[in-house]
Write a structure and sequence with these properties.
By secondary structure, the chain is α/β, with parallel strands linked by helices. It folds into two domains: 139 residues, Aspartate Aminotransferase, domain 1, CATH 3.90.1150.10; 223 residues, Type I PLP-dependent aspartate aminotransferase-like (Major domain) (Aspartate Aminotransferase, domain 2), CATH 3.40.640. It has 13 helices and 15 strands. The longest helix has 25 residues. The radius of gyration is 22 Å and the shape is globular. It starts with 18 loop residues before the first helix and ends in a 16-residue tail after the last helix. 44% of the residues are buried. Bound molecules: pyridoxal-5'-phosphate (PLP). Pyridoxal-5'-phosphate binds next to helix 4. Keywords: Lyase, Pyridoxal phosphate. Its EC number is 4.4.1.13.
Length: 407
């Protein structure tokens, strides 16, 4: 078994390499796509085999097998994270963002506040604002070069009274933190004290590197009152366009409320292809995932070493999990436009701009590492060439695209 990369041919229509997206976001249809949090690797063979089996049947009758899906998720979490989940506490939803949107609309009222920890996955802003709730920021702080939760500020925000919910991202996209047990314990204590419900987005929970351990908020939630978890196999197994999401809610009253809404809107019908693929992933995909994690970890090591030796002016926040890395370009002292031009047009890289994740982050960029190492290596070489041209006093904005400067 080995990780085979997919080809970004236009006919495939993958969002990541779609020329229209690349043009509208990066002004460069040729940019190497390292932005959207999606993998370039083929899924585990058992997933493809299972999908083939269902297609071969040629019959797509109604099938409601979510109980089997929940059992597979439960067993997986017990094995990978020593997490003892209750199959009765799961609810099926079409995707993670759908689940978060439902929770926001059900558990708060228009005008009430929802806390997010910036910089954070940009779609959280959209789901909060589209529900006419207020985004309340609890910015992460950098302590000794590591992103941490500012609990003092968080308590102030919870105390405001207008705050009903918080969306936690664990592991955190884009900074790559895997929150510790102590941090999660402190968070649940505050949530219980101020009656704030934590929506814990744990979609990245299986992309955890060897020096870290994933601590679901469920493992420290003793009151079973103020926590709703949302997860999905999408990130773990590269199933973005074919998987469902799930809610895990221990609080029976909250679960009954959500179940009523989800059932009433028939959002729990699922899709047999998705359900069988999910079961195959969680029951037969572990070897593939272990190989992926080893590969990503080696890629991270290569990037860390390259940056420290060749590009020390670009700072990496070493990820504990996720296949995103958060890069700080402030050392280059460029304007926002000049940095974007340097990365998108001179280095030909489609990286996610930092200001998507919150204000004041325009000197950062997020890079997706789930690509072949050779692609990542070429990308960093391109970055080095573009930066060196710039440092040597050549105006990156003045140069036509692809015209190499003298260095
Ligand atoms: C933290 C986080 N939540 C949710 C999603 C999207 O999940 P879905 O496509 O199931 O709505 C992503 C995708 O990048 C993500 O990073």
């Amino acid at each position: 078994m080995s990780l085979l990369d997919i080809k970004h041919e236009v006919k495939n229509n993958f969002a990541k390499s779609n020329p229209n997206f690349l043009q509208s976001m990066f002004g460069n249809t040729e940019a190497t796509p390292l932005w959207i949090a999606d993998m370039d690797f083929k899924v585990a063979e058992p997933i493809t085999e299972e999908l083939n089996r269902i297609v071969e049947r040629g019959i797509y009758s109604y099938e409601f097998i979510e109980k089997d899906v929940f059992k597979a998720i439960k067993n997986w979490n017990f094995k990978r994270h020593q997490l003892d989940l209750n199959t009765d506490a799961f609810l099926q939803v079409p995707g993670v963002l759908t689940g978060i949107s439902l929770l926001i609309r059900e558990l708060s009222k228009e005008g009430e506040g929802v806390v997010v920890q910036t910089p954070v996955y940009h779609q959280f802003f959209k789901v909060i604002k589209s529900a006419k709730r207020e985004v309340i920021e609890n910015p992460l702080k950098i302590v000794d070069g590591v992103y941490s939760i500012d609990f003092k500020d968080l308590e102030l925000k919870f105390k405001q009274g207008n705050v009903k919910l918080m969306i936690l991202c664990n592991p955190h996209n884009p900074v790559g933190r895997v929150w510790s047990k102590e941090e999660m314990t402190k968070l649940t204590l505050l949530a219980n004290q101020y009656n704030v419900t934590i929506i814990s987005d744990e979609i990245h929970s299986d992309i955890i590197f060897s020096t870290s351990k994933f601590n679901s908020i469920v493992s420290v939630d003793t009151l079973h009152k103020h926590v709703a978890v949302i997860g999905s196999p999408a990130k773990t197994f590269g199933m973005h366009s074919i998987s469902n999401g799930y809610l895990y809610i221990s609080n029976e009253e909250m679960r009954t409320q959500l179940k009523g809404v989800i059932g009433g809107m028939y959002l729990d019908h699922g899709n047999a292809l998705s359900a069988y693929a999910t079961i195959a992933a969680y029951t037969k995909g572990e070897e593939w995932l272990n190989e992926l994690l080893g590969y990503l970890e080696k890629t991270n090591c290569w990037i860390e070493s390259f940056l420290s030796k060749e590009l020390p002016e670009v700072k990496l926040f070493k990820p504990e999990g996720t296949y995103q890395i958060w890069l700080d370009f402030s050392g280059l002292k460029l304007s926002d436009d000049a940095l974007n031009h340097l990365v998108f047009n001179r280095a030909n890289l489609a990286l996610t701009p930092g200001n998507w994740f919150g204000d004041n982050h325009s000197s950062f960029m997020r890079l997706n590492t789930a690509s072949p190492l050779s692609t990542i290596q070429e990308a960093f070489q391109e970055l080095k060439t573009a930066i060196n041209c710039n440092i040597e006093g050549q105006d990156v904005e003045a140069k036509p695209k692809n015209s190499c400067c003298s260095c």
